[in-house]
Design a protein that fits this description.
The protein has about 200 residues and is of the alpha+beta class. The protein contains 6 helices and 5 strands. The chain folds into 2 domains: about 80 residues, Beta-grasp domain (Ubiquitin-like (UB roll)), CATH 3.10.20; about 60 residues, Orthogonal Bundle (DNA polymerase, domain 1), CATH 1.10.150.120. Bound molecules: FE2/S2 (inorganic) cluster (2 copies).
Amino acid sequence: MSCATLPLHEVAAFGGCPIRRRLLEGQAAMIRMTRISVTVDGVAYSDEVENRTLLVQYLREQVGKTGTVIGCDTTNCGACTVHLDGRSVKSCTMLAVQADGHEITTIEGLAKDGVLHPMQAAFHDTHALQCGFCTPGMIMSSIDLLGENANPTETEIREGLGGNLCRCTGYQNIVKAVQQVAAGSASTGSPAGASVSTGVSS
Ligand code: FES
Ligand code: FES
């Protein structure tokens, strides 16, 4: 039997096996650590991360920004979207070490002094969510979308949010929220946690 097929706990007995040693060296390289310095939601962090750590893992597990969620891990759903230097990125798509020296904004960094960002307020006003799992990524992508195109058509909004999937809403009210902000008619922000108009008359 080749020593390469042995389970890890038996490797010691094969300490001199060159194949197994190369495999172990490869695993050791994968868990090599690197120190990164980033700014997350306005706060500077300097942390040791494994080279293989995804940005979303770093944000959630080391920085504690659990408002950024993982929906797929395969770059499909957009739930993990954050801003890197002001542009939206899927944080499961890049490594934490690639964010070294950069500024990251998560959904948790949008509200200022307890006042919701206009896009957050618009999602609330238009009831642009149901379960809310896609919402952090949707909001981050929507802000970037309007940064690129302040007055998008409905088609442009739908295309611009093409990388963000929602299993609940059918997208209608998400589009309305973006249109509301684009039109400048979103509420200027409400104290976070306070009652906000739903925009639905009873
Ligand atoms: Fe990143 Fe789905 S978790 S795209
Ligand atoms: Fe449930 Fe979008 S509100 S996935």
